[in-house]
Specification:
The structure is a homodimer of 491-residue chains. With 491 residues, chain A is α/β, with parallel strands linked by helices. Chain A has 13 helices and 26 strands. Chain A has helices spanning 2-5, 42-50, 65-75, 80-84, 96-110, 128-143, 189-198, 212-222, 226-237, 255-263, 270-275, 299-302, 361-370; strands at 8-13, 59-64, 86-90, 115-120, 147-152, 163-166, 178-184, 201-211, 281-285, 311-313, 316-319, 325-327, 332-336, 341-345, 349-354, 381-384, 387-395, 398-405, 413-415, 420-427, 430-434, 437-441, 446-449, 455-458, 465-472, 482-485. In chain A, strands 16-17-18-25-20-23 form a six-stranded antiparallel β-sheet. In chain A, strands 5-8-6-7-9 form a five-stranded mixed beta barrel. In chain A, helix 5 crosses helix 8 (212-222). Chain A is globular. The two termini of chain A are 45 Å apart. Strand 13 (332-336) of chain A pairs parallel with strand 15 (349-354) of chain B, so a sheet runs across the interface.
Chain lengths: 491, 491
């Protein structure tokens, strides 16, 4: 059905911060940007999984204004696919019902009569083909004006997921849809055990398929305060569009009004706001393996364990640990006799905890935030649109970075008021602009950028350029930068 | 008794490798060089504790040839005291009986009729004054031709220590010596419980006091194969000395013969070889607190715990852990809900284990050795006689170091065949010699040392000099160095 699929859009929700995977996740590197399972990051896997099922220009990412640029850079490795993907930006995070409502407003104008698939950006679905098969089925239900969701057959009495209770014996003919009786919030262990043995309870996957018009009318019915605000937002976004140029919304000339409207919305989830209240919900019992990766222990469901029940990744040496997760990078993590534990190492922070308390990692992040520290914000290696930099050391009066520039990449023309910089090229060739003069610096050569000097670093070559930067100055923080020209639009 | 104390010598055994404190201890940084308890490293504390009780020139360190120079550098912070301390070098490690025998041979020639105090270099004795009081008593026993040792009153049924069983009711008058019935090897838990409740068992502290002549005659009686070899070694060492110049032995002109003799010795401990066999052993029940620091868990005896039974050191955030030891440095170690665990972090390796398996850290070190790795050999920061260097990063074709030179320190005049070096001064002033030319490099200036170029780095100032060194070359290992002149005798 290639023709019909043009009217199907994939809406990927990518607003999460992913505190629960600290120290691997940071504010600037939330869970969807991590490669914790599979061959790529969760967000890029999500896009690749759906691409082709819908045309790439029908893939939408819903995220907040402040995260959009980082996500755009994060998608670069996807090449032309990254360029096709479109963004719907929320002024700020307001939970899933407003985010989905905003996407529905967009799609209803740009592609009337379309079907939308709503997907989180940070779940694990190892078998894409099974997922797409189930998705095909779900679209049949959406066409008949149902809200279709996917239920995962529980394999244990899990207390970390919401449940969907289906009407027993409700199979709608050969297609296998189940009629939903109700949505159930995360249960305690006793209830979870009952659900597990009952057979009519499924885990709520958070993936939904429906007509755009249908979800808007359900919002109108069940969230009467959200609907009129969405219509008001629509009128601002599409104010000057003529009917035949509805490819994209206008740049709103009232951004403050938009922000104000959006920030007033109740932060309600689509499950609580719509799914629990609607009478038209169907569930597809998923044939695909799934995890919402709600915490480090979720890896147990989705990654292969060794014969002792361990998941060991990176530079580890273990002696007789059992049922533990050891996530290392470059540094050595040596473990002896651990049982049911989680150890996660990153260059600047290590987490050690028991599996049953892994959710409390939020408390560590809270403590870091309250103490004005940095280990919850960024990694030592920071990905940038032009490559990456790694802080090797920071001391009194200096900071040392390794900077990697992708082929043909170009930093902004910039200036620092409080620091000078020594650059030593350790691989590749650098093109340096310093106060108007431009020159090349080869491997094993160095150059110097005095304070208050306009400069720019480029990689004119076809291999990565690596330089060691030694910053000197009383103040060596990232915010001492004035940008004059930037190919990534960051001036 | 100032006059008599001149004839008392302190012999500090410093041959240990201290695998059991990995990753804090390394081959190049054994346990005695660690500051794990108290204000200084264990070895320097040991020297400071005894200094004054005996004259500083009567303090001897027995260690192996290969460790002697590093230990000499390690003592530098002791200033003039470091210069007084003398070394007795074993060609290689052969356990305590040969080491003590070698020391006795020296002292018997250099200071006939002397008393020697034998002390490990890596034990914790927090209260020096109590220790010296007990030591004074022990010397009275040694003068009467007893082998005197110190027993520690057990505070729990410990299986990690050897025991001394004393003859009940054997107190020798007011002095409080106890007559030793026998030495007992490390017991199992059942036996340890019996010993603990019995009251006549003490922990064997490994500290001994005796006349030099007495221990030699006991060696002659109980270790008949050791004694003649020691006499042969003596004849080589003191071959050309005339009776009135016996201040120090000659440089042996037969070093190979010496090595051969020493390597043939049975590696037997003084406890097994002498103390368990001699009839003339007395024990002083120690009034001082003591730990042999046999493993990470020994810290529980000697360091203060918080209200949850934890010992937290360095950059840590903990949530509700109990009875655990968390040793961190600069990097953040975040822990949640640990019980009876040990976590030790260093810049390149982290250990996580349970307290009851902490002895198995040896297996980790064995694995590292077998796999040809480096994490058991050196730290990222290496102490040198002139200061220290820290490897910040090593990559393909480059290595980055932070180098700290003490005031007025001077590296060797040297040359590298396979790498060039870029130096950026980040604090202090550097004096650089490059192919005969000498010049100053100020903070925030840099210089370049091409491959195959003789060069030298000095700190002419009175504050530490810090430079960042970026090495370039296909081969950037430490052994690419030719030294032409070195103030520390390393050419």
């Amino acid at each position: 059905m290639p023709h019909q699929l043009k009217d199907i859009h994939a809406v990927i929700l990518a607003g999460g911060s992913g505190t629960r995977f600290w120290p691997l996740s940071r504010e600037a590197c939330p869970k969807q940007m991590l490669q914790i399972v599979g061959e790529d990051t969760l967000l890029r896997q999500t896009i690749k999984r759906i691409n082709g099922f819908v045309p790439s220009e029908n893939i939408w990412i819903v995220t907040t204004e402040d995260k959009a640029q980082d996500i755009r850079f994060h998608l670069q490795p996807l090449g032309s696919l990254a360029k096709s993907v479109q963004f719907i930006k929320e002024p700020l995070g307001r939970n899933t019902a407003p985010a989905i409502g905003l996407a529905a407003i967009y799609l209803n104008r740009l592609s009337p009569g379309s079907i939308m698939i709503v997907m989180p950006s940070d779940h694990a679905i190892p078998d894409a083909q099974k997922f797409l098969n189930d998705l095909k089925l779900s679209i049949e239900g959406a066409k008949e004006d149902y809200l279709v969701t996917f239920g995962i057959k529980p394999c244990r009495p899990e207390t970390g997921y919401g449940y969907i209770k289906v009407v027993k014996g409700s199979e709608m003919g050969p297609k296998g849809f189940l009629k939903v009786e109700r949505f159930v919030e995360k249960p305690n262990l006793e209830k979870a055990k009952t659900y597990f043995s009952d057979g009519s309870y499924f885990w709520n996957s958070g993936i939904f398929v429906w007509k755009t018009s249908k979800i808007l009318s359900e919002i109108q019915n069940h969230l009467p305060s959200l609907y009129p605000t969405l219509k008001e937002i629509e009128s601002i976004l599409f104010k000057h569009n003529k009917p035949n140029e509805l490819k994209e919304p206008n740049k709103p000339n009232e951004p403050n009004k938009l922000n104000e409207l959006y920030s007033r919305l109740d932060p309600v989830s689509i499950d609580y706001g719509i799914m629990e209240r609607s009478a038209d919900v169907l569930m597809v019992p998923a044939t695909f393996q799934w995890s919402d990766l709600g915490s480090w222990t979720a890896l147990d469901e989705i990654l292969g364990k060794d014969e002792n029940g361990n998941i060991l990744k990176g530079n580890t040496i273990d002696i007789e640990s059992q049922n533990s997760i050891i996530f290392s990078g470059q540094r050595l993590i040596a473990t002896i006799g651990l049982k049911d534990m989680v150890v996660v190492d990153t260059p600047d922070a290590t987490l050690v905890t028991t599996k049953d308390r892994v959710q409390e990692v939020r408390k560590i992040v809270d403590a870091l935030r309250q103490n004005g520290r940095e280990e919850h914000l960024v990694h030592k290696t920071v990905e940038r649109p032009w490559g990456s930099y790694t802080v090797l050391e920071k001391g009194v009066g200096y900071k040392i970075k390794r900077i990697v520039l992708n082929p043909e990449a170009k930093l902004s023309l910039q200036l620092h008021r409080k620091r000078s910089e020594h650059w030593v090229v350790v691989s590749g060739i650098a093109k340096v602009t310093r106060e108007g003069e431009t020159y090349l610096v080869n491997t094993n050569e160095s150059t110097y950028i005095p304070v208050n000097t306009k400069h720019r670093l480029e990689n004119p070559g076809e291999v990565p350029l690596q330089i060691i930067e030694v910053q000197n100055g009383d103040y060596v923080e990232e915010d001492d930068i004035e940008r004059f020209d930037d190919v990534y639009g960051r001036t």
